[in-house]
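Notebook p. 47: complex prediction with pyridoxal-5'-phosphate.
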Amino acid sequence: MSSNTLLDRSLKAVWHPCTQMKQHETLPLIPIVRGEGPWLIDADGRRLLDGISSWWVNLFGHCNPRINAALRDQLERLEHVMLAGFTHEPVVELSERLATLTGQRLGHAFYASDGASATEIALKMSVHYWRNLGRPEKSRFVSLSGSYHGETVGALAVTDVAIFRDAYAPLVRAGSLVPTPDSRLAQDGESPADVARRAAAVLEAYLADHHRDTAALIVEPLVQGASGMVMYDPEYLRLARSLCDCYEVHLIADEIAVGCGRTGTFFACEQAGIWPDFICLSKGISGGYLPLSLVLTTDTIYAAFYDDATSRGFLHSHSYTGNPLACRAALATLDIFEQDNVLAANRGLAQRIGDAVREKFGDHPMVRHLRQRGMILAFDVATERPDFARRFFAAGLEHGVLLRPIGNTVYFMPPYVLDDLQVRHLVDGATAALVKALA
Ligand SMILES: *Cc1c(COP(=O)(O)O)cnc(C)c1O
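Predicted complex, structure tokens below:
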């Protein structure tokens, strides 16, 4: 089957995500036939370096031999069983190992299949917790401006990205927004920690007024991904934690994008020295192999649901909750973290990527706010071109790199397996793409 025919069939039968389909009249779809480490290989044999980990999910390369082997083994044992009334080794072991990674502070794992569902589970658990405690009025949420927590109707309540939300506003019971601690907002003489303190002061005023009906604050720790890799100081998380304690409001850490080592520590919250009441994980947890998400929470939350009354339990479910194949992929992923000492190795890799990006873009006259947190790098391009992102993406493809700017923000979020030549290829590709996109 020629790739052209495949593209025609795809455009006819597949409604692609996050896409105005009409734009594919001019921008062709790319048929991928194979993956190999950080490379995606298309139907013509062209190799693309996956600089954004296929929407931030891939950690250890495509078709990773170790994850493949674990999945083959699991396939021969058990592909799936419902998790209500049944259990299995992969889901138990994964839950135990994640609990250990939190030092047993968040020792209860509830499973789903995608990130938005994890957000909704955390929101529902928070509200149900307060209801079980006889405080049903605590049912509202607060999030940061520019926040992204998923696109289902419930998750949109705490998502502040207009293009994803506006069309569905009548369906959404919107939460409240408080200012983002975005380090770029620093005024003369202000440090990122000062910006964090200024933003936390507004959060404090909000909670002082509204804590009686507020269930939880939800944040993307350290990096707000979808609104353009907005980075902020860990001081904000420390202050948010103590304000949430003071005002009896849960803190939900949406680590769907920033978890699994992305920012340098396994959980981003570790860099602030705090633990939230809920951690949402998805994306990288299965190594980028299979849909899997989960919410970790504390003994205190868990205990509030443990009762003779069925209705006080958390009755939420998804058909594929705790899927054994996805859990096995996650266990193989955690094995790689341990066996290869990935967090330490990533410190060196992040430094090398940072050096290469700063060398090419640090003095570029149109580059602003070059920033990095672990394996996430970003900069803003001072251009008025409304089609900048699409032009940059298309030009990157011509130079063998997959990079998809968000608006005017170019970012790198590659798998953790790049060697020096691949780092060079990625940064050279971005350099060429920037020239073409601005031409
Ligand atoms: C991707 C993402 C989500 C949503 O996950 P899906 O699997 O796409 O539903 C939620 N929160 C954050 C921070 C994300 O990056």
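Notes: The longest helix spans residues 342-361. Residues 114-116, 119, 148-150, 220, 225-226, 254, 256-257, 282-283 surround pyridoxal-5'-phosphate (CB under 6 Å).
Next step: compare against the earlier run before touching the bench.
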